[in-house]
Amino acid sequence: MAPAPSRATSSIRTIPTAVHMLLLLLLFVFCHHHVHFACVAKELEVTDEWQVVGENDTVPAGVHVRIDLSTGEKWVKLAINDDSDNEIDKDKKETATTTTSSSLLAVVNEDGSVDMQSQESSSAASSTTSSTNNYDFDMMHRTLSKLPDEEKNRMGGLPQLPQATETTKVTPEERKAFEERMLEIWIRRQEELASLQDQLMDLPAILRERIIAIDDYLKDPPHSLAKVDLDVELPEGVVTHIVSVLDDLQFQVSDIDMARDFHTMGGWPLLVSLLSDNAHVAVNTTIDGQSPTTQAKIRRIQALAAETMGTSVKNTGEFFPFAVESIVIDNGKRVTTAIDILIEVFCRRNHSDDWESRILLSKSIYAIGAMLRGNRLAQTYVFQQGGLEQLGQVYKSLSSKDHFSSATVKLVMRLSSLVSDILEDLQLHPELGDSATTKTIIDALTSKDWCDATQQAITSETYLPIKVQESILHSVATMGPYCQWGEADIKKIHASIERMKVEWMHDQDSFDMEHWEQLQRLAATAFAATEKKNESCGKMSN
To answer: Superkingdom of the source (predicted)?
Structure first.
């Protein structure tokens, strides 16, 4: 299996979203480095002739945009059929002396597609252009000076532009050293742009390779597992076996367009299949019956699959249906969904103590959260399938006195964060669903199991890091008006909140003042939420 492209560039896409981001970067980078980091923008009046975009110009929608990635210049014209697309503003060709150079252009078409083109452009030769090399070194310096500081530092910095004064002249040696350094940087930039173009064209091939690799694994797991050595850390970007395939894929789908393409190309069902135990072992055998080494490899594969699924859909409404679409797994013997199998894995193995299983649980609840947050479709589906009830039971078990420990505290924190996030979303955006469905979901998330779990977590004697305290306090504040806690439970919750405040006061010097004040407000909100529950809030009424 061939090494993957460097992660520094492999997520750059030849699709509208990434190029639009590049457009914004190029349009504003010049403004960003000027005094006060501000500039006044005006909308450019676009004609049917190519014209350069000024530093303070904004581009209206529906125009044809061309970007010279070598110089950073932007050119626009009206989006009409024109056979002269390869010409750049004939008025710019007035000088007698010109130099010709090849540059890479990103062209945003009217339909939103993007082409990468090699463009022959003419530019006036500067009086300081080297007669030997026909390079305009002053122009190079002006162009590269507009790059972000981190990019200039990556190239070793730009040399200072030699300038004569009233008392000193630029010596031939100084000029030669400047030109040699500028030429070195310029050639490097051109090589990087050429490499970028090659990688842009290869991105779909990368996804195809990852999909094929997963499919090959599913056809013969024992053969593929034999190649995996979890003790050997591969160099970044090197892909040799199924674990490295999934590790790289998780990075690739963090790009929205790559995630979309991965699903479109049929990779999603294969990824979901990896969560099924039956996908990794022979019929009538179990993963627990394998050697400890093989078990660890399989759990790592499942954990990476879960993490990749969560990364694919996280915070992207377009991908929310991925969570509940029907998928056939186990050689056609079973129909499930991504969210169903994630909940199944999490609930079945929630008390596993081995390291790889704990990672699998952590990645599973991460993916569950990514699919449920803001996703009313998935929330409704999971409620109907009993998934919220299952998660509540696990939450209660993990936060109980017998199981709440440093090994489970992260899972408890993620469950408490999940319930408060969903409840807040339901309260803030009731228009996203009908009131009856909203009420049933709120009732399910404030059932006895969920409420008991939160009460157990906040009153536990287990040491809770500040981040965990914040998460659980947030849950108390959100769930308080709905949970049917008794008077004794509320007193315990209040005592725990007061104890936390005393601890914060004792360690106040270790807090950022703003953070410390936020904690105080959160504690007060949680305290008040539990007091109000006995008044009139109770469960949500119709």
So the answer is: Eukaryota
